[in-house]
Design a protein that fits this description.
Layout lengths: L1 H9 L14 H13 L8 H18 L12 H17 L13 E5 L4 H12 L4 E5 L11 H7 L5 E5 L17
Parallel strand pairs: 1-2, 1-3
Helix pairs in contact: 4-5
Length: 180
C-alpha cells in the first residue's frame, strides 16, 4: 500500500558497516561501566590497570596469543600505520653483526591498498627507506591480476612485509589467500 511505502522510507537504513557498526547492548554496557570505573591513567591507577589487563587476557585467549603480544590502538588506521612502520623497523634492526641485512627493506603491496596502508608505504618510499613492489590489479575484476606476480615479487633476504587486502571494501574482490 501507499502508506506502507511511506512508512518504509521514513526508517533509515544504515549501510556503511565498513566504517562502523552498532554495538550490542552487552558491549555498550561494558564500555559505559569502564568509562565510569576505569577512566584514570592505567599506569597510575591499579583499578584501571586491572580492567585493561583483564581485557588484554580476554582478547589474547580469544585469538590464541600471549597477553604481552597484544598492542591496543585507537583503531584500524593507527593499527595499519603501526604494522607497516614496525615491519620496516624490525627489518632495519636485525642483527647487523651477522650480516642479516642485504639492502633496503622491501614491501610487496597491491596497488589498491587502503589509504592507511598505502600512505605510510608511499611516505617510507619517498624518504628512500624502503623498496616497494606494487602488484597489478585486473581492472575488470578488481582482483589481483596474477597470484604468481606476488610470489615472483618476494625477495628472500629483504622482503619484510607483504600486504594485500583480503576482501576489497570498494570492489568486493576477494584476494585468493589460499593460492598464495
Amino acid at each position: 500500500s501507499q502508506q506502507h511505502k511511506q512508512e518504509a522510507t521514513k526508517t533509515p537504513i544504515y549501510l556503511d558497516y565498513n566504517a562502523t557498526s552498532p554495538m550490542s547492548s552487552q558491549s555498550r554496557d561494558a564500555v559505559i561501566e569502564a568509562m565510569y570505573t576505569g577512566w584514570q591513567n592505567p599506569s597510575v591507577c591499579s583499578r584501571t590497570r586491572s580492567i585493561v589487563e583483564v581485557a588484554r587476557k580476554s582478547v589474547a585467549d580469544l585469538i590464541g596469543c600471549q597477553p604481552a603480544e597484544l598492542i591496543f590502538t585507537s583503531g584500524g588506521t593507527e593499527s595499519n600505520n603501526w604494522a607497516v612502520k614496525q615491519a620496516v623497523w624490525m627489518y632495519r634492526n636485525l642483527d647487523r653483526a651477522e650480516n642479516a641485512i642485504v639492502g633496503r627493506p622491501h614491501i610487496v603491496a597491491s596497488c589498491i591498498e587502503h589509504d592507511s596502508i598505502r600512505k605510510p608505504i608511499e611516505r617510507l618510499l619517498a624518504l628512500g627507506l624502503v623498496d616497494v613492489t606494487w602488484l597489478r590489479i585486473d581492472s575488470s575484476t578488481g582482483a589481483l591480476a596474477n597470484v604468481g606476480d606476488l610470489v615472483a615479487a618476494l625477495r628472500w633476504r629483504n622482503t619484510c612485509l607483504v600486504t594485500v587486502m583480503w576482501a576489497n571494501n570498494e570492489t568486493g574482490a576477494i584476494f585468493p589467500i589460499a593460492e598464495v
